[in-house]
Design a protein that fits this description.
The chain is α+β, with helices and mostly antiparallel strands. The protein has helices spanning 25-34, 56-73, 90-105, 124-137, 163-180; strands at residues 9-13, 19-24, 38-43, 50-54, 79-84, 109-115, 142-151, 154-161, 209-210. The strands form 2 sheets. Strands 2-1-4-3-9 form a 5-stranded mixed beta sheet. The chain has a 4-stranded mixed beta sheet with strand order 5-6-8-7.
Amino acid sequence: MNEQIRAREVRLVGPEGEQVGIVPLERALQLAADVDLDLVEVAPMARPPVCKLMDFGKFKYESALKAREARRNQQQTVIKEMKLRPKIDPHDYETKKGHVVRFLKAGDKVKVTIMFRGREQSRPELGYRLLRRLESEITELGYVEAAPKQDGRNMIMVLAPHRAVKASAVAATASRGAGRERPAEESAAPAVGETPAGETAAAGETGTTADTGGQ
């Protein structure tokens, strides 16, 4: 809920983060007006509350840019699935391994499933050896997140990309997105005296603002 700064004294922080000290609210408002900045309450629960001198419009603009950049860089975890037979043909194995490699390079996890049929169910070691072989051949890209486990007629293993591989995939995705996306137009910073009393800042440095106009 927006409200005006009600304390008689505030702990004032300068625009560069320097500590000014505890000053009367009227003095803080005057200092804000003198340097053409807004007085923003950033820690209302402190005693006395902490206020900072800043350009509130610029702060909101930069916060919006950072939030958009964070959303662009965020990548949801995707699990791909690759199914193999315990007696898979060598050529088919190489093809499917290529898909696993591609998934890991893209930063995705891979659920590898060995499907047993008929009498193959009595030879689980065939599937286990195949999964271990795949593990050894993709070790530079990923690791075993979930060890091979029998699940009914299937044997399942989950592979995950190394952090460096995933970070590279995220960076590549962000780079492609930056090339396609144009920054959205943002509203101009408020002029001195136009900041409504009690307006609340966003994204981490939330607080109420006091109108410095006419002080």
